[in-house]
Amino acid sequence: MSEPNVLMQFAPLVLILLVFYFLIMRPQQKKFKAHQAMLAELKVGDRVILSSGFTGRITRVGERFFNVEIARGVDVQVERNAVAAKHEE
Fold first, then answer.
1. Consecutive H or E run containing 34
2. Are 83 and 42 in contact (CB under 8 A)?
3. What is the pLDDT of residues 15-69, one digit of tens each?
């Protein structure tokens, strides 16, 4: 009897890792890059949806935080990553 090839023993593992990369990791990386690009483009006056579900208008853009007006006269300071999406009107 001959020994099974070492490459053939690891082929299923390599195949699983490739499928995992292309179905899970790569789309997540693309989504993360798109979100970072959206955050970089935000400016004063843009309407946004926060991860908490609130919507509001950006009143001040800082390096790490945004000020968002969620109601007339109510400004909240949120971290950049708390902005889930830009609300297109």
1. helix 26-41
2. yes
3. 999 999 999 999 999 999 999 999 999 999 999 999 999 999 999 999 999 999 9
DSSP three-state, residue 7:
helix
How many other CB atoms are found less than 10 A from the CB of residue 66?
A: 23
HSE of 77 in the Cβ direction (CA atoms, 13 Å)?
4
Reduced to 3 states (helix: H, G, I; strand: E, B; else coil), residue 18 is helix
Taking alpha carbons only, the member of 48, 71, 74 closest to residue 61 is 48
Strands of the sheet containing 55-61, edge to edge, are 74-79, 65-71, 55-61, 47-50, 83-86
0.85 surpassed by pTM = no
Cβ–Cβ under 8 Å, residues 47 and 75 = no
